[in-house]
């Protein structure tokens, strides 16, 4: 079958849910990848509303008093929402390679926030971050510097997929 051979040569997946459909547009042969990715991308975009909901919940919980860690959480939520929208836009338009960069940025966002709140004094860490102190120079509860490797180790203890995704996004 021409389609299967072409897909195999290109290293593309070929199953009932993901297949290559060759089309002809004048002299150029265009390949279109059909997959459930659009559904998955829409599911990601649907996370926009929960971002806002978490922000509203945090704002109400603060009761008018914003502490450094709260401000950091708002910054993380805002960055996360922007990265989510950018990731959706890129992948919806075939920008898979730059999408990996945004995935890494989103993971860094989570790693750094998780590391900050796992410190003995999250507010002091947040203040340090706002004053330009690199997180990698600060120490966690066990006295280890919060390097990227340490942050991955900390988050991976409850989320085993983090190490694998981090390594993929860095390569």
Structural category is mainly alpha
Overall mean pLDDT stands at 81
Strand content: 5-15%
Order of helices and strands: HEEHHHHHHH
Query: Could you tell me the number of beta strands?
Result: 2
In helices, the fraction of residues equals: 55-70%
- Number of helix segments? 8
Radius of gyration: 21 Å
Instruction: Choose one word for the global shape.
Output: globular
Give the low-pLDDT segments: 1-34
Q: Output the strand order for the largest sheet.
A: 1-2
For the report, how would you describe the main beta sheet?
2 strands, antiparallel
Q: What's the N-to-C terminus distance?
A: 35 Å
Question: What's a quick, concise take on this entry?
Answer:
This protein has helices spanning 2-10, 37-45, 48-62, 68-92, 96-117, 122-130, 148-156, 161-170; strands at residues 19-25, 28-34. It is mainly alpha-helical.
Question: What attributes characterize this protein structure?
Answer:
two-stranded antiparallel sheet; single chain; 171 residues; mainly alpha; globular; disordered N terminus
Describe this protein's structure.
It is a single chain. The protein has eight helices and two strands; from the N terminus they run H-E-E-H-H-H-H-H-H-H. A two-stranded antiparallel ribbon has the order 1-2. Residues 1-34 have low confidence and may be disordered. The radius of gyration is 21 Å and the shape is globular. Helix 4 crosses helix 6 and helix 5 crosses helix 7 (148-156). Strand 1 and strand 2 form a beta hairpin. With 171 residues, the chain is mainly alpha-helical. The chain has helices at 2-10, 37-45, 48-62, 68-92, 96-117, 122-130, 148-156, 161-170, and strands at 19-25, 28-34.
